[in-house]
Amino acid sequence: TQAIAASVSNNAVQLYQVAEEQIALAGELRGHTSTITWMEFDPGQPQLILSSSTDGSVRVWDTRAGSQVEW
After folding, report:
1. Is 32 exposed, middle or buried (0-12, 13-18, 19+ CB in 10 A)?
2. pLDDT digit string, tens, across residues 8-64
3. SS3 letters for the chain?
4. 0.85 cut: is pTM over it?
5. Which residues contact 44 (CB under 8 A, 6 or more apart)?
6. Which of 3, 29, 40, 70 is least surrounded, with the fewest CB atoms within 10 Å of its CB?
């Protein structure tokens, strides 16, 4: 399966799993308190997503655990 991430209007990152011709919501990552301005999968560790927000924070998320990684 393939993963897709999208920032949504409630300042969260939504995770989707793509299998064959179907897309299913797999989870939501919450922590930013304002609009998400950038988001990218880590090319070296594809289970990680990095995101930044107008709240001034940069966060690293583990999609397997569904939580923020402390770094």
Report:
1. buried
2. 999 999 999 999 889 999 999 999 999 999 999 999 999 999 999 999 999 999 999
3. CEEEEEECCCCCEEEEEEECCEEEEEEEECCCCCCEEEEEECCCCCCEEEEEECCCCEEEEECCCCEEECC
4. yes
5. none
6. 70
